[in-house]
Amino acid sequence: MEFTPVLRSEWLKIRTLRSLPGALLALFAATTAFSATAGVSDASDPGSDSLFTALAGVIPGQIAAISFGAMAVSSEFHRGGLRLTLAAVPQRGRWFAAKAVAIAVPALLVGLVTALAALLVGRAGLGPAAERLSTVEQVRGVVGCGLYLMLMALFAAGVTALLRSGVATLSLLVPFILVVSFVIGDATGTVADFLPDKAGQLVLRETHDGTLGPWSGLAVTALWAAAALLAGVWSVRRRDA
């Protein structure tokens, strides 16, 4: 089967599985709400990073992006769904590539819209403190935020294909990103800069220290996502449906 009809089929699954649009809606709602709160709470702090404060809602919001990627893949492992899929598309690599594209495109589009909305409400909360942000920094923050959310969704998708369980993926990634990553960062210094979340979030900062910059940090996150997807496609090809 050609790639285009496979992609169309995967896109139809994402549109019709109610939890997946719900995860993208949660991504938008949580990110903008937390950014608005962060902007107001940090408005009086002259030492705060205004760009990161305005986009701070991404920290909790990324959980919805991770859930989106995990659920999009884990749905295939319920009630023999993958067997039916592979009966229609025997080329497992082609199917998984279509699944990744079907996850990446809506995650990126919703991520960009979410980042723009978060920046606007965050700026409103910051008030005069937001005036020091340049246009270039704001564009970089919005574009980088959209790419970061997409990469985290793909990272979760690859891990889910490897573990064959959305629950296992969320049980692993959510505590790691919300708790373990911060503990490791405090204990190990520059090593933590290369973790997928910490590296990618550099693109959300007005200023940064350390080995990586905004785009090189995002490239590190992209490598993590690529490695997870490669592990996922290996698992799909080697293991029984």
Task: Describe this protein's structure.
The chain is mainly α. It is 76% helix and 0% strand. The two termini are 19 Å apart.
Q: What is the strand content?
A: under 5%
Shape field: elongated
Count of separate DSSP helical elements:
10
Q: Helix coverage percent of residues?
A: over 70%
Descriptive tags:
10 helices; 241 residues; elongated; mainly alpha
SSE diagram, text form:
Blueprint: H1 3-16, H2 19-41, H3 50-54, H4 58-74, H5 81-88, H6 92-126, H7 135-163, H8 166-188, H9 196-200, H10 214-238
Quick overview of this protein structure:
This protein is mainly α and 241 residues long. Helices cover 76% and strands 0% of the residues.
